[in-house]
């Protein structure tokens, strides 16, 4: 083959690898910092791109979370990799009385979006920049821990889940999502693919594990510690 053809093939391969590393898997195989940096860049457009449907946010996130806690007394929820505060917003929209909500994320840009969104109820929400693999909370303090659409972007999803379980109270509710379907093939070495997360949670001794299809690329998984 003429050298120019080899050059062209090399260029196409290189572009495909860069596309996979930066666009498809959002920097996760490059490290934690590149992921946060890419989300910092995307943060101002994130809500517009996602365009989540208010009614589904309530039906699949806000209402079931509120049903999982006893709102007649004080309770706490931690949303890990909270992004622009989707879970906390869903709970605010449903309405609750005695919750304190915490959101953590590695990306400051995303957190700024969340803080802006939470302006009107800032007295009962707190946001902090933290890595999911090293949560800065004591053991067993949260009644609920959630983490949506983020495990596949973490270098060590099992370590992140262990951290979530550490800060969750015995009997507390865990809400996670798992990347499934065609897209999950592009996340080798992660827990993505249908059923894997549920099997792992079962092995960790969690009970009442329920999962259902959610959005296009995810399963939403509920479990009790
Ligand atoms: C697709 S967004 C999901 C955000 C939000 N949970 C939602 O459903 O809209 C993924 C989020 O995970 C965060 N993230 C990725 N790796 C993280 C890590 N190791 N620790 C904390 N946050 C992380 C990113 O910064 C980003 O905000």
Q: How many separate domains?
A: 2
- Give the N-to-C terminal Cα separation: 60 Å
CATH structural architecture of the largest domain: 3-Layer(aba) Sandwich
* CATH H-level superfamily of the largest domain: Vaccinia Virus protein VP39
Average pLDDT, all residues: 93
Instruction: State the total count of DSSP E strands.
Output: 7
What is the overall shape? globular
Low-confidence blocks of residues? none
Measured as a percent range, the helix fraction is 40-55%
In N-to-C order, the SSE pattern is HHHEHEHEEHEHEE
List the helices and strands and how they pair.
Elements: H1 3-24, H2 32-50, H3 54-68, E1 75-80, H4 86-94, E2 99-105, H5 108-117, E3 125-129, E4 142-147, H6 157-167, E5 168-179, H7 196-203, E6 207-214, E7 218-224
Parallel strand pairs: 1-2, 1-4, 2-3, 4-5
Antiparallel strand pairs: 5-7, 6-7
This protein binds S-adenosylmethionine (SAM).
Explain what this protein looks like in three dimensions.
The chain is an alpha/beta fold. It has two domains: 3-47, no CATH class; 52-224, Rossmann fold (3-Layer(aba) Sandwich). It is 42% helix and 23% strand. It has helices at 3-24, 32-50, 54-68, 86-94, 108-117, 157-167, 196-203, and strands at 75-80, 99-105, 125-129, 142-147, 168-179, 207-214, 218-224. Strands 3-2-1-4-5-7-6 form a seven-stranded mixed β-sheet, sandwiched between helices. Helix 5 (108-117) links the parallel strand 2 (99-105) and strand 3. Helix 2 packs parallel to helix 5 (108-117) and helix 3 (54-68) crosses helix 4 (86-94). The longest helix is centred in the N-terminal third of the chain and has 22 residues, at 3-24. It starts with a helix and ends with a strand. The model has no long low-confidence stretch (mean pLDDT 93). It binds S-adenosylmethionine. S-adenosylmethionine is lined by residues 32, 35-36, 39, 81-83, 86, 105-107, 110, 131-133, 148-150, 153-154.
């Amino acid at each position: 083959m003429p050298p120019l053809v080899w050059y062209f093939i090399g260029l196409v391969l290189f572009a495909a690898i860069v596309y996979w590393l930066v666009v498809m898997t959002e920097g996760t195989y490059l490290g934690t910092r590149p992921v946060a940096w890419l989300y910092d860049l995307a943060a101002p457009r994130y809500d517009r791109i996602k365009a989540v449907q208010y009614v589904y946010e309530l039906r699949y996130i806000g209402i079931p979370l509120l049903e999982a806690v006893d709102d007649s007394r004080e309770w706490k929820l931690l949303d890990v990799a909270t992004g622009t505060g989707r879970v906390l917003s869903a709970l605010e929209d449903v309405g609750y009385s005695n919750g304190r909500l915490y959101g953590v994320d590695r990306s400051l840009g995303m957190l700024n979006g969340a803080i802006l969104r939470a302006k009107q109820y800032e007295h009962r929400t707190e946001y902090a920049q933290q890595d999911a693999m090293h949560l800065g909370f004591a053991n067993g303090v949260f009644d609920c821990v959630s983490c949506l659409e983020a495990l596949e972007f973490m270098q060590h999803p099992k370590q992140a889940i262990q951290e979530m379980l550490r800060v969750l109270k015995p009997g507390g509710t865990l809400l996670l999502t798992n990347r499934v379907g065609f897209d999950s093939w592009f996340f080798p070495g992660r827990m993505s693919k249908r059923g894997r997360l549920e099997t792992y949670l079962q092995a960790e001794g969690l009970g009442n594990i329920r999962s259902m299809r959610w959005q296009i690329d995810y399963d939403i998984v509920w479990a009790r510690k």
